[in-house]
Write a structure and sequence with these properties.
Blueprint (H helix, E strand, L loop, with lengths): L2 H7 L13 H11 L11 E6 L2 H11 L11 E8 L10 H19 L3 E6 L4 H11 L5 E10 L23
Antiparallel strand pairs: 1-2, 2-4, 3-4
Helix pairs in contact: 2-4, 3-5
This protein binds flavin mononucleotide.
Length: 173
């Protein structure tokens, strides 16, 4: 699958088979997550990888109803910002860097035949706080997003091209 096909065919996948995800595959996904751009190359993220069913359920509890897909997932990865590594003059870039890492992870999963769905966490601070407490994270580590992963149960619905001409402005607004 080439890069364009990968981007255009990725869909959120919320139902998974029981097939586990190997260490080797998780390593590939995390390599992709760490290969995106980051502000001043700060690489201001950390990843918490979970495969234990009970912990996955507790992570789902922490994020509330929209995180239900995690209960059937083979793995969940909590993408976190690391404020100690963030660009000191504009630390908020950690949010951008975290989002890039999360999207790279989802695209790499799709390339490897694994379904993923992004489960929004930051800036819903109740979710952030509950994930923080669940894992007793250090103060400078901030939960950013939770990615549920698993081999897809069924084909996600295909989608046509979604270019929206009215969103694009050339040369002037
Ligand atoms: C920041 C963010 C938060 C999201 N949170 C959730 C969520 O909590 N639960 C969920 O099922 N999907 C969540 N999604 C997935 C979106 O619903 C999905 O990307 C969108 O409907 C478009 O569908 P697609 O991913 O198949 O293109 C989230 C996506 C993003 C980028």
């Amino acid at each position: 699958m080439d890069a364009m096909e990968n981007i255009l065919t990725r869909r959120s996948v919320r139902r998974y088979t029981d097939r586990p995800i190997s260490e080797e595959t998780l390593h590939k996904l995390l390599t992709a997550a760490m290969s995106g751009p980051s502000c001043v190359n700060a690489r201001d993220w950390s990843f918490l990888v979970v495969r234990d069913r009970e912990t996955l359920n507790r992570m789902a509890d922490a994020n509330g109803r929209p995180a239900e897909p995690l209960r059937g997932a083979a793995a969940g990865i909590l993408v976190c910002g690391d404020l100690e590594r963030a660009f000191p003059r504009a630390k908020e870039y950690w949010v951008v860097d975290g989002a890039i890492a999360a999207e790279n992870l989802c695209l790499a999963a799709h390339a490897l035949g694994i379904g993923s769905v992004w489960l929004g966490t930051w800036p819903q601070m109740d979710r952030v706080q509950r994930q923080r407490e669940l894992f007793q994270l250090p103060e400078h580590i901030v939960p950013h997003s939770l990615i549920a992963l698993g081999y897809p149960a069924g084909e996600p619905e295909a989608r046509g091209e979604i270019y929206e001409a009215d969103r694009v402005h050339f040369e002037r607004w």
